[in-house]
Write a structure and sequence with these properties.
With 452 residues, the chain is of the alpha/beta class. Helices cover 41% and strands 18% of the residues. The strands form three sheets. An eight-stranded mixed beta sheet has the order 4-3-2-5-1-6-7-8, sandwiched between helices. Strands 12-13-17-14-15-16 form a six-stranded mixed beta sheet, sandwiched between helices. A three-stranded antiparallel beta sheet has the order 9-10-11. Helix 8 runs parallel beside helix 9.
Amino acid sequence: MEGALRRSELAVIPIERSTVTAADRTLRFLFDLQFFGIKAGLENIREILEFLGNPERRFPAVHIAGTNGKGSTASMIASILTAAGYRTGLYTSPHLIEFSERIRIDGKPIARKEIVRYARSMRSRIEKIKATFFEATTAMAFKYFADNEVDVAVIETGLGGRWDATNVITPLVSVITNIGLEHTEYLGSTISRIAFEKGGIIKPGRPCVTGARQPAAIKRLRSIAKKRGANLIRVDRASSVEIVNRSIDRLEVNLRSKGSDYDRLTISLAGDHQARNGQLALLAIRQLDQKGAFRRISRPAVRSGMRSIRRYAGLRGRLELVHDEPPVIADVAHNPDSIATLIDSLRRLVRGNFLTVFGVMRDKDYRRMIRQLSEISRLVVAVRARTERALETSTIVENFQAAGTSAIDGGSVARGAAMALKAAGAGEWILVTGSHYVVGELLIFLNGGVET
């Protein structure tokens, strides 16, 4: 979730240097904007963008919303476009380690000096209108993409869709990955209402690809699309997928859709759920191809992009093997739906139960997540990420024990991960999950505590 976060939640580990640099001061300025919270409406982002010369009008875009799978689907689309030779911007959130991960061109993060330059150029207007963190960073991304003359940008929403700061673009195609009950305090407490909010990214006359399944969600999205003259493309009706091979670092699938069948297509992400994200990505790519402006999207480019997602888009923390001995899997699943998907994929890949390192935000449905993880965990090490939103480790331990699973207090993510590495039995796998912030701190720990 973006907008209502506090400063410490985005600076996963405080920057420790002997001298404070201009980039450090700039990032602190941006993080401090989170005290303005969430603001419904697009007036602020429009004012900043007008101040910058409306950079969002200078590149074509793909817009992506949904409860889960946004980051993976966005990265697949961006990776294919980069592989096809297009200069491709990618805007996602949150980051795992460095702020610069959010804004990329052809997989390369924005340079720290560029963050400083763009923040300085916008600072007076940001302060005047009291813009939020996400409004400011979205404007920065759009200006950066326009100045660097990207051929196309793939833009992920932060929260919802209708009032999300990214919803000032008119994309060539929109993607709504799925609809789940999350952020109900902002988006509503029913599937239909949440679908209404996320369906806000559907634009007049522009196709929308969706993987939503619930009848209430489909009914709402169909109604929005009809009113706006947009073609709603349902993934299950427009394509099919068969998994032919799975491993801890990839999938092989047979993917079928009208005019674009792929046999033994390699997706360089683990987990059966990535097959569905792959369907969404390829249907969106097909819509771009049909627009006529992206003639270089060839079958070899699709195959190259799908097998090089981390290289071309920088995606990490999605059922990722981050340590070999003992094997450690990190996944950013942070709600019951994504935890259920994670467990289903793990059961198909790894035999036996896990030593689980778990930390979660207190505003999530953590009790349900704990009950789910209890089914696959021999022992749980409870950890607390360095953010005010993180749930106390004592509460995590109590809930796991109430569910009949042994649990111990690991303290910080780094300390808990170190405990898990020492406690793992022969051949036992370690799972680290529950939050982007937990996975981010784990990666820093495994990298020797150095931010990358």
